[in-house]
Structure prediction request, 515 residues.
Amino acid sequence: MLRRPSDLQLDRDPSGRFLPFAVTLMVFLAMLATAAALALSQSALGFQHGLEGRLTVQIADEPGSSLGPRAGRAVELLRETPGIATADELPREAVAALLQPWLGRDGLTRELPLPALIDVTLTPGMAVDLDALQAHLGNTVPGARIDDPRPWLDRLSRIAVLLEGLALAIVAAIGVATVAMVVFATRAGLAAHREVIEVLHLIGARDAYIARQFQGHALRLAFKGALAGTALAGLALFAIGRAAAQLDAALLPPVEFGPWSWGVLAALPLVASLLATLTARLTVLGALRRLT
Amino acid sequence: MVRFQNVGMRYGLGPEVLRDVSFELEPGSFHFLTGPSGAGKSSLLKLLYLAHRPSRGLIGLFGHDLATIKRDKLPELRRRIGVVFQEFRLIDHLSALDNVALPLRIAGVPEAQVKDHCAELLSWVGLADRMQARPATLSGGEKQRVAIARAVINRPSLLLADEPTGNVDPEMGQRLLHLFVELNKIGTTIVIATHDAHLLQTFRKPVLTLANGELAVRRPRGE
Prediction:
């Protein structure tokens, strides 16, 4: 069966021709901003999960005082402290390995006075008074210092929230720009087809009948643009992912998008298409109401 | 059906093109509307097919007062009115058949019925072989017949025609007028604006005469 011709020849409108390209760009940028926000949120969570319930106790190498016995005393003391599940001294090779990214593999670490590091795991659900523990450790083992990652994690979390908010603001700004473009294109279309619209009205067409033609046209153009934008963003994200995998990113936890993240990204082109459709409808209905 | 009471109309801030026009059309009546060029015939028709609002006076249509009717009720009234515009106002990118189909599609008639009805009517007005032609390729007379078919396809309660026989030969003019007469017989109220004195004589119907924006009603002798 032949498709019913549209009463308004909107697909010939010059005003609508730029819309798919503009939506392509908008969806591309929105997907990158959203992907960045999601990756950031995941990285912050990864750090938090990795460091939550853990402490490091550092014992500085001091001249005239042997490091080994002091580290042993610190481990014993820590293991006796309520709320601490495990306390293990890291082997010297492991401490040297931690410094390798900065100092290289040329044996420099062997000559340096490296501190002893004790990896401490806290018992879940039990509070440990870190100030009291620090005071006790400091008195018993000279040069012992607790590295508590929580203030750093708090700062990281605040920065992550700020950057996520910024990414959302970028997506919102992109949404506003898309709405403005659709409004412009729809108004131009209304002006170009004023004669036919008047005839349709006089024959008995409701505003919604005319709006349906504009919204259908906007949906087709925006969806075409959104698909292209999604494809481009997919390629860009793939390239960024490949480049990131090649970096020696020992400090960064790996970012793996879960189903929810993929769902959010997949929803963006649909949201952009629906936004264009709704904008076209409301623009037409508003303009026709003012017309007569 | 239609009632005008002291209706005046002007375009913008210009002079009144209609002054104190009062008349009444009974359901199922047939009237010609005549008068010299610029007398206000097209303006009166615009008021009747709800393209304009009066500057003053009252218009009653199908029992509704147009001064108080809500905008969203206008499409229902317009669907009961068939209009043959003087300049046809066909939609250029649609075929003759799709132009005629517009009122049915707007009214939500199922597509299967739309094609059958339109093809039948276009055959009746002598355009069976021009159904897929675009208006740009139709002659003036053919366009006029498409415009008439579009106006009557939905069996309107009120049919308004602005010079509907102006571009066709006398024989086709008579044939189209007979179509209007047939529609009138099944209850459609008809108003035809025309300059054609021959039509007025042939079809002896009441005549609304406009001169200088004022209207007079004249009934044929013996009625």
